[in-house]
Amino acid sequence: MHWVSGMWWIAVGALLIGELLTGTFYLLMVACGCIAGGLVRVAGGSVELQWAIAALVAALAVYLLQRSRRGRAVRVNPEHNPDINLDIGATLDVAGWRDGAARAMYRGAEWDVELAPGESEHAGRFRIVAVRGSRLVVRDAT
C-alpha cells in the first residue's frame, strides 16, 4: 500500500488546479483534508485512519468556510448596488417636480427622475440612490 502515500499528494495537486480554475475555495478545503490524510500516511497511520482524518479535516474546513464572511456572500439588489451601476451616488439638478416625477439633464441626456420614498418635491440638487431601468431614483443631496 505504498502507492497510497503518493495518491494523497496527487489528489492535493489536482484539487489545487481545480481550485485555480473555479475560484470557489471549497476545493481548497478538500485539498486541506487530503494534506491531512497524507500527513497521517507519513506518520504511519492505517489507510482507514488516513481516510477518516482526511474526511474530518475537509468537512471541518468546509463548515468553517461556510460560516465565514467569505462563505456568506450577501446579495445586493442590482438597482441599489454602486458596484454594478456607477451612476449611484452621483448628483444631478432637478428644476421642478410633478407628482414625484421629473425630467433632468444627466450625463448629456434627459432622464426620467423619481423621488425616493419619503422625499419632498422641491427644486435643487439630488443624489442618485437607485436606477430602475432608465429611471433614476433620487434623494435630496443637501
UniProtKB/TrEMBL annotation:
Transmembrane segments: 7-29, 49-65
InterPro entries recorded: NfeD-like_C
Positions of the NfeD-like C-terminal domain: 86-139
Protein name in the entry: NfeD family protein
One Pfam family cited in the UniProt record for this chain: NfeD
Domain of life: Bacteria
Keyword vocabulary terms for this entry: Membrane, Transmembrane, Transmembrane helix
